[in-house]
Write a structure and sequence with these properties.
alpha+beta, 4 helices, 39% helix, globular
């Protein structure tokens, strides 16, 4: 049974400006594991896309549970990838749920959708 659905869209240039304006922005959004991946990306554009995708996925998850960011922090939600490259979400307290996430990018936007299903 589906317990929640969330979607979020973010402008890549907004993320780029946030990175340039505040050097702690990535630390606020990304977990330690996510930061390791982010810092190993060689292309600045790919870093913006990665961060925007994680930002959108975390916002989408918070919307799916019905709280929004605030009750949950960006640090509570971790978006990693499978061996095949598909995104996955880990959230403490939600281990009993199946969480599905999809992230996509265009030239100007990153979009993420999350579906939470009761096991």
């Amino acid at each position: 049974m589906i317990k929640g659905i969330g979607i979020d869209i973010i402008e890549l240039n907004r993320i780029q400006r946030s990175i340039e304006k505040n050097n702690r922005f990535t630390d606020r959004i990304l977990t330690q594991n996510e930061q390791g991946i982010f810092h190993n990306l060689k292309n600045d554009q790919r870093k913006v896309e990665f961060l925007a995708g994680r930002f959108a996925a975390k916002e989408a998850f918070a919307k799916a549970v019905g709280t929004g960011i605030g009750a949950l922090s960006f640090q509570h939600i971790e978006v990693l990838t499978t061996k095949l490259g598909a995104p996955t979400i880990k959230v403490s307290g939600y281990e009993a749920a199946s969480i599905f996430v999809s992230i996509t990018h265009s030239k100007d936007y990153a979009v993420a959708q999350v579906v939470i299903e009761e096991k």
